Amino acid sequence: MNSTEVRSADDLSGLVRKHRLDAIAVDQRADHLPAGVVSALPADHRVVVFPVADEHSDTAAFSAHFGFGLEDCANTLILRYTKDQADRYAAVVSLGSLRLDVNGAVKALLGAKRPTFAKREVATALTGMEFGGITAFGLPGDMPILIDAAVMERPFVVMGAGYRRTKILIAPALLSRLPNAVVAPLTFPPA
């Protein structure tokens, strides 16, 4: 998928058909998503929610099974960091094809000391989501959401939906509208 390939809802429908995604109707989303994700996810024509078998949930397995590139997948990671002598948490959204610059760009943007990936049990407790399915939608209202600028260059991305068995195909512009969202270069250049 490149930036000229997808320009409209018709193009999004084409991607749904091409990749054989079984779109979940808007009125059925509550059966497939955590409540916080349902309330935060916009009812927009640039959002498709679809089921995924657990064995295809991880980014590499998903890409191989459905035919999306790693550059089409946006992962949401929860980081723990220290600022003003207190432990804090932030979400970071980056493409599966790029490596996150945690100790450089992310640390500087947060004004943080010692950023690390949050422990699995902490990430799931904070978000109310399953590990491996965490998404930027439905996070705690005070949590910063850092979005790598490369995500915004994609016409659409696939990301977690709160549960491992569900994914979201979405226009990245909708991510930048989230409360506490900041878009900045956060990854190393491609090798």
Q: Explain this structure to me?
A:
The chain has one domain (9-184): YbaK protein. It has six helices and eight strands. The protein has 191 residues and is an alpha/beta fold. It starts with 8 loop residues before the first helix and ends in a 7-residue tail after the last strand. The protein has helices at 9-18, 35-40, 59-66, 102-110, 120-127, 149-152; strands at residues 47-51, 73-83, 86-95, 113-117, 145-148, 157-160, 166-170, 181-184. Strands 1, 2, 3, 4, 5, 6, 7 and 8 form an eight-stranded mixed β-sheet that branches.
Core attributes:
alpha/beta, globular, 8-stranded mixed sheet, single chain, 24% helix, 191 residues
Number of beta-strand segments: 8
Order of helices and strands: HHEHEEHEHEHEEE
Mean pLDDT: 92
Figure out the total of helices. Answer: 6
How would a textbook summarize the main sheet? 8 strands, mixed
The CATH superfamily is identified as YbaK/aminoacyl-tRNA synthetase-associated domain
Q: What level of helicity do the residues show?
A: 10-25%
Q: What is the CA–CA distance across the termini?
A: 20 Å
| Rg over alpha carbons | 16 Å
Shape: globular
Q: By helix and strand content, what is the structural category? A: alpha/beta
CATH topology type: YbaK protein
Given this structure, which CATH class is correct? Alpha Beta
Strand content: 25-35%
Instruction: Flag low-confidence runs.
Output: 1-7
Could you say how many structural domains there are in total? Answer: 1
Examine the secondary-structure arrangement and name the CATH architecture.
Answer: Alpha-Beta Complex
